[in-house]
Amino acid sequence: MDLDAYVRAKSPTWQRLDELSRKRHLTGAESDEILDAYQRTATHLSVIRSSAPDGAVVAYLSTLLARARGHALGSTATTWEQLGRYVTVTLPAALYGTRRWWLTVLLVAVVFAVGIGWWLLSHPTMEHAFGSREQIEHLVNDDFESYYSAHAASSFAFQVWTNNFRLALLCIAFGVFGFPVVWMLYENILNLAVTGSIMIRHGRGDLFFGLITPHGLLELTCLFVAAGVGLRIFWSWVAPGERKRSESLAEAGRTAVAIGIGLVVLLLISGAIEAFVTPSGLPTWARIGIGIVVWVGFLWYALVLGRRAHQRGATGDLDEIDRGYSVPVV
């Protein structure tokens, strides 16, 4: 196809669409005209993308259609409709689409924590490298348990929530560099393994798991999700495949934003459990049971509901008309 001739032939339609899209108010006749021009221009864009994918022309028409969309297609979905779609489609699809990353991080972190904990239990003298005898006795007999009840539940929940989502969002934000994500994950898992080994060695393993499990299952999984998404961002520009690095990075970044917003809410739930359930007077089995139910609910949301959304074509990214079109790459 002769692209220059095609552009000359179709540019009057594009110019008219541009004029109409810049008007604040349209008459009835103009509304019909802009709808017709919009449909024609969308067809032109499809033809150019498939026959002569020129980057400048594709970008121009994509911008033109995006600007005219409101006039041509009417108002978009309401905020509540958009929120409902995000909760039931976008977020679970994004979690499912990135599952290989965060499930791998989860598995590696668990193996690392168990390995370090086992090694520390096999070398009892190593615990003194992390604190004096008095500090360890305070941790075992008082500090670990009192941490969850030393402050008012509401303020403690807010403190835990802000700290956790700050850490999760840092994993995503620094994901483009790769190493900071691994380091933050290493520090948190090492701290958990060291504390757990000390509590178990001193005969307080039941207390450790009874207090850490109710909120820790969801909290740590959210951290693994954030780390996995961050590493996916890093890999998107290291190995972009057949796409440009900028396009690959942009797609991973948009999906990461969708997941990051969801993690803020999930970590709020985790913080509420840590503040109100973990230190409560409920039996240990009941507190752990609540944590397991919430965690299994998250896995169902991410892997089952997410799979259903993914099968319907959702990816967790913006719709093509909102994110712009990409020129095919050979």
TrEMBL record:
Does Membrane count among this protein's keywords? yes
Chain segments annotated as transmembrane: 101-121, 165-186, 207-235, 255-277, 284-303
InterPro entries in the cross-refs: SpoIIM-like (IPR002798)
- Zinc among keywords: no
Q: Which Pfam families match?
A: SpoIIM
Could you tell me the keywords of this UniProt record?
Membrane, Transmembrane, Transmembrane helix
Q: What is this protein called?
A: Stage II sporulation protein M
Species of origin reads: Gordonia aichiensis NBRC 108223
